Amino acid sequence: MIGWDLNAALALGDALGIPPVAMAELLPLIEAVMVRKLNEEMVANGGPGVSH
User: Fold this and answer.
1) Where are the domains of the chain?
2) Which of 18, 19, 36, 44 sits 20 to 30 Å CA-CA off 29?
3) What do you get for the CA distance between the two ends of the chain, in Å?
């Protein structure tokens, strides 16, 4: 995984009433952690598309 669709994430934040400034500040940080954790999990499980 390389990242999120940030336009969709910003639209979701807007729909939830989250201020755009907060979304712009927090989304990159949250995205970086999620991408790193998902990639670690994929490696630990034998890569994408591999089921155990």
Assistant:
1) 6-44
2) 44
3) 20
Alpha helical stretches, state H, 1-52? 6-15, 20-44
4: closest CA among 50, 13, 49, 46? 13
Helix (H) or strand (E) holding 50: none
pLDDT in tens, the chain (52 residues): 677 788 888 899 999 999 989 998 998 899 889 888 988 998 898 876 555 4
CB proximity list for 20: less than 8 A, separation 6 or greater: 10, 13, 14
**Polymer length in residues for the chain:** 52
**Residue reference for tokens 């999990």:** 41
Enter the pTM of the model.
Answer: 0.60
